[in-house]
Structures are given as structure tokens and as C-alpha cells.
Design brief:
- The protein has twelve helices and eight strands.
- It is an alpha/beta fold.
- It folds into two domains: 3-163, NAD(P)-binding Rossmann-like Domain (Rossmann fold, 3-Layer(aba) Sandwich), CATH 3.40.50; 173-264, ProC C-terminal domain-like fold, CATH 1.10.3730.
- The longest helix has 22 residues, at 195-216.
- The radius of gyration is 21 Å and the shape is elongated.
- The structure holds NADPH dihydro-nicotinamide-adenine-dinucleotide phosphate and (2S)-3,4-dihydro-2H-pyrrole-2-carboxylic acid.
- NADPH dihydro-nicotinamide-adenine-dinucleotide phosphate is lined by residues 7-13, 33-36, 55, 68-71, 73, 77, 94-96, 117-120, 171.
Length: 267
Amino acid sequence: MSHTALIGTGVMGETLLAGLLRAGWTPSSIVGADRRESRRHELEGRYGVRCVESPADAVDGADTVLLVVKPQDVADLLPAIAPRLSDRALVVSLCAGVTTGQLEGGLPEGTPVVRVMPNTPAQVSEGMAAISPGVHASEVDLEKAVHIMEAVGQAVVVPEKYQDAVTAVSGSGPAYLFFVVEAMIDAGVMLGLPRDVSTILVNQTMYGSAKLLVESDKHPNLLREMVTSPAGTTAAALRHLEERSVKAAFMAAMEAARDRSAQLGGS
Ligand SMILES: NC(=O)C1=CN([C@@H]2O[C@H](COP(=O)(O)OP(=O)(O)OC[C@H]3O[C@@H](n4cnc5c(N)ncnc54)[C@H](OP(=O)(O)O)[C@@H]3O)[C@@H](O)[C@H]2O)C=CC1
Ligand SMILES: O=C(O)[C@@H]1CCC=N1
């Protein structure tokens, strides 16, 4: 029976594995590959999936291969799996920066490839994935990749030229928000709140604001105006953020993330 091979079971690989199982995939339909024995035992114990050492063994007989290794490991991985890949097996890469062209170049001629940029909220089935097909991927291949990523959140199909920008926005995005959360918690402590109180205030404010943003479908600018009373506390705070060019800092930071994504792919 055919299976899905999961090559790389670190943070994102395990996120996808756990999410697929939560969505109803059976453990026997997935074979993981990890080079560390302790990690293989850990995953077998936690999820009941078979984990092997060699990526080539994992892809043998697979109809779908998920590549979730660091971009820097892709060049060594492709020649290792290429000879064992089944005819028409779909290769779905979640690796930042690595282009479908680079993947196609290292795999047997005609291999269907789909490039995905996921993010870690997939751990709670609220991920955001942007998906781009390579030249040999059919509509069915693309739908298969969308189906996989929709098991752990939302998915959109975008032209591949947007993937580096997507990586800067939604791929790295959770880290920016956690950074803001940390800053706000520390600021609450600075103002004299106990850390646990500051933490729950900030976490629930972040969660409630995200829910309001999505459910109200209102522009963030309007939602911000609703909080900002004339000559009030919010206006006093926002003035400092404007004076410190926080929006410009985000633009520069995300430009750096976009450029790093392109660099990881070597383009
Ligand atoms: N973390 C995130 O938020 C996101 C990550 N991604 C992408 O996902 C990919 C993985 O990232 P992440 O999970 O964070 O990284 P991790 O380092 O946590 O996981 C990568 C895993 O791949 C394993 N690995 C590397 N080479 C091989 C190989 N030849 N065979 C089997 N396993 C191998 C590594 O093993 P070892 O530990 O032994 O090196 C490690 O367990 C990256 O390409 C990243 O760009 C995309 C979007 C978001
Ligand atoms: O930091 C990284 O390179 C990966 C890609 C997007 C999020 N994490």
C-alpha cells in the first residue's frame, strides 16, 4: 500500500505529522525519516508512525513525499531520494527559499513538485500556507497539496514569484507577533504587574484582538480607531510607537526576511 513520506521531523515536520493525524490520517499511512535514533523512538511512541533512518527507504513506494528539512540540507537530500522515488510521486517542499526549479533539477525528469510556505499556528490547526505548483504538477497534484495543508489550517495558491514575500509575511509572521507579546508582557511587569497577571492580560488581548480582526472583517485601522479615545491613553501610547518608526521597522525587517528567503534558495 502506498504511503506519504515525511522527510525531516523537526519543528515543522512534527507540526504537520501531528496535524495530519488530528485530521484523521492513519499512522500507517505516514512514514517518517529522521537521522537521530532517539527522535525516531520519540515520534514512534508519541504518534504510532513508523520512522526510518534513511530518507531513501522512506520514499520507497510513497505516492507523496513531504520535504521538511532545512533549506541548507536539500542539496544533499535530493540525490539520496531521487533513485528510489516512485514514478509520478508528488514531492511537496515546505523549505523556505528553495524553488520548484531547483527541486525539479535534482529529481527525475517530470517529477511533479509543489512548493509550500506553512507556519507554526498549524500546531493548533490554524496555520496559513501559500502553495505554488512547479511545471510538472497537475491540477490533481496541486489539489493534493492544498488538501494536505488544509488539514492544518488555511491554504491559498499563489504564483511562485510571491513565495519569498509570503515567507516574510506569514512564514516568519508568528515570530514577530510573539516578539510583540514578549515586549508587552515585559512592559506590564515594568509598570508593576505580577508577571503571571501581565502574561494573561497580554495573551488574551492578542487572542481576542485576532478573533475580532478576523470575525468582524473590519480594517485594522478602523479597529484601532475604535480603541483610541480623543486625548486618551491609547493615543498617548501610539504617539511613541509612531515617533520610533515602528511601521518602518516592520517594513525593513520584512524586506530582510524576503531577501534572506531568496538567498536561501540561491537566487
Ligand atoms: N519552523 C517554522 O516556523 C517554519 C519552517 N519552515 C521550513 O521548514 C523546514 C524545516 O524547518 P524546522 O522544522 O523549523 O527545522 P528543524 O531543524 O526543526 O527540522 C529539520 C529536521 O530535518 C532533519 N533533517 C535534515 N536533513 C535530513 C535528512 N537528510 N534526512 C532526514 N532528516 C533530515 C533535521 O535533523 P537534524 O536535527 O539531525 O539536523 C531536523 O530534524 C525548513 O526548510 C524551514 O524553512 C517553513 C515555514 C515555517
Ligand atoms: O526562519 C526561517 O527561516 C523559517 C522560514 C519561515 C519561518 N521559519
